[in-house]
Amino acid sequence: MTGPRVPFVSLTPGEDADAIRRAIDRVVRSGWFVLGPEVEQFEQQFAAEAGASYAIGVGNGTDALMLILRALGIGPGDEVITTPLSAAYTALAVTMAGARPVFADIDPSRLTIDPARVAEAIGPRTRAILPVHLYGQAADMAAIERVAAAHHLPIVEDCCQAHLATAGGRAVGTIGVAGAFSFYPTKNLGAFGDGGAVVTNDRALAERVRRLRNGGQTDRYHHQEAGFNSRLDELQAAILAARLPWLARWTDRRRELAARYRMALAGGPVDIPGECDPGHVYHLFVVRAAARDTLQSHLAAAGVETLVHYPLPIPTQAAFRAFAPAPCPVAGRVCAEIVSLPLHPRMENEDVATVAAAVLRGHMQCER
After folding, report:
1. Which of 146, 147, 173, 310 would be 199's cystine partner, CB 3.0–4.6 Å?
2. What torsion do the CA atoms of 25, 30, 34, 36 make, to the nearest 10 degrees?
3. Tens digit of each residue's pLDDT (9 = 90 or more) over 158-203
């Protein structure tokens, strides 16, 4: 059985393979596997790359969000406003902190949370705004900042799909009080398993997150508060540090491939969400198609692998019905139409041409 002609993603090491092997061997030889020098070095390197003063390695991106909320003192009885279009883990992080997620609908062009809907959702129990920089494109941070400032609310940024992205020239994760990153293998900077980080310019917040991730310890066996066990391990930190020097080049390649898609599909049968900020890093290349299922079937027959990110708005998921979420009609329409086309740094230009041609052929066949 052969795989698809154009697979959705390639996760095996490429030009970084030798550096990764050296990093793995170094950690194995050291015999130190949790919270050691590899984590410390990667934290310093990633903070510099992300434009932040501090980075704290944690277990995954969900934990990163939860730890920021807990470090801010957010918990039971509090509400956090977030988007209905994201991986459900964004909202799950809010519930892990003990708070209630409140969903504000999305901007139909940017597909990120709509600042006007955020303003409408603010209530007496609102304690934070949690925008998601979705698919690699930053949310409308300038407008969200105005809303947050008017109501004296902190902004917690979900940057799990937005490594090196910028909003108005500013690095995501440094615009609000803190940002959460994921290093899940499919991310723009991926580990060989789970991993995450919190970035911030707030020293006190960084110190509390660092304490909370390690059981609330101030030093070994002395627990100042009830914390969590969420630590980036040495092996993943070493792998991430080995890959980090390639991230800028990989990001440029993602942008180049996205530009080719935009050119090839311009005026075609699918709607391409706008590039609202040049800081878009194209974690995913998502288009909208009224006949999404038909298009996916045609592309699969043509050997093109696609996925849907995400088929259901978060508030319609059974896990969140108890929160009595308000309707988000724009997100509902978008979730019925979006489909993610293959895009990753190891794709060839010819792969983009193949996918685009298959999209156009599928539309013509549907019209017959």
Report:
1. 173
2. -110
3. 999 999 999 999 999 999 999 999 999 999 999 999 999 999 999 9
